[in-house]
Amino acid sequence: MTYEFHLQTNSPAELEKVTALLRRVWPRNRRFNPPFIEWLYRDNPNGGAIGYNAFDGDEVAAHYVVVPFLVEIDGELKKSALALNAGVDERHRGQSLFLKLADLTHRRAVEVGVDHIVAIANANSTPGFLRHLGFQLVTPLDVRLALALPRPSGARVAWQWRRKWSAADLSWRLKNPGGRYWLAGSGEVSWIIGATKYRGVHAVLKVESDPLLRRQAEHQLFRRITWPPVLWFGKNPTLRAQAAIDVPMRLRPSPFNLVFHDLTGRNRRLRPELVHFEAADFDVM
Q1: Could you tell me if 100 and 76 are in contact, meaning their C-beta atoms sit under 8 angstroms apart?
Q2: What does the pLDDT look like over 157-174, one tens digit per residue?
Q3: Are 165 and 69 in contact (CB under 8 A)?
Q4: Cβ proximity of 148 and 202 under 8 Å
Q5: What is the per-residue pLDDT across 21-70, written as a single tens digit (0 to 9) for each?
Q6: Structural domains of the chain, with CATH
Q7: What percent of the chain is predicted at pLDDT more than 90?
Q8: For residue 197, how many other CB atoms are within 10 A of its CB?
Q9: Rounded to an integer, what distance in angstroms lies between the CA atom of residue 192 and that of residue 147?
Q10: b/e for 33-67, b at 16 or more Cβ within 10 A?
Q11: What is the pTM for the complete model shown?
Q12: DSSP letter (8 states) at residue 201
């Protein structure tokens, strides 16, 4: 089949077609609607989504996009991007469209100053990222169910990789039209909490002690009591939670594999024990 490959413009008409594709690929995912896609692709204070689409006539047959954000990596502030929503219509699979779009998108990302790409890959997408796109499998994210909110232990770590949040960045994140968030805790630590699809279980999206970010969260969110159990997923060895258990892999809806692709040509690799990652750092909620 013959396709036309176009750099994504994030125009309303184009995003409408992208949303239609995502709905066809994931018909049960209710968040794929115009308000969510516009928020994610256009409203990001770090810049609009970078990506390519494969068109079959006037229809988007395949889509690959990365969303930029700032990180501290090896002691330097850099622009990273999160790969997400890579989808190929069932009628167009087997044409290597995922690989073609990813290659075009990563080349464009380099042109606009993106230092590296990260993704949270599921069981289906992990082999493609690793074998065909040259990503490093850094680590599966930890998933824990706890009877108390996780607290910082006070241990100091020289993080190799950590997202650099600004007040504007956090404000945008909390405006997710599909999110249901509130604030827990007081004193020197705040917890941003979100609802999950599991009745009676809430998720800890972010554990925050920075005064500026805490004020931003307090400005936007209501404070309410959060009853256990709580679900936490990410990478942060400095967090401690009482009566916490690791959720077995067989009970998880996805392995949540953190993968990393260096775009600088220096073949850098991340050390799992020096990565700080939270649920708020990606789009799962």
Answers
A1: no
A2: 999 999 999 999 999 999
A3: no
A4: no
A5: 999 999 998 889 999 999 999 999 999 999 999 999 999 999 999 999 99
A6: 1-114 (3.40.630.30), 116-285 (no CATH)
A7: 83
A8: 8
A9: 16
A10: eeebbbbbbeebebebbbbbbbebeeebbbbbbbb
A11: 0.95
A12: -
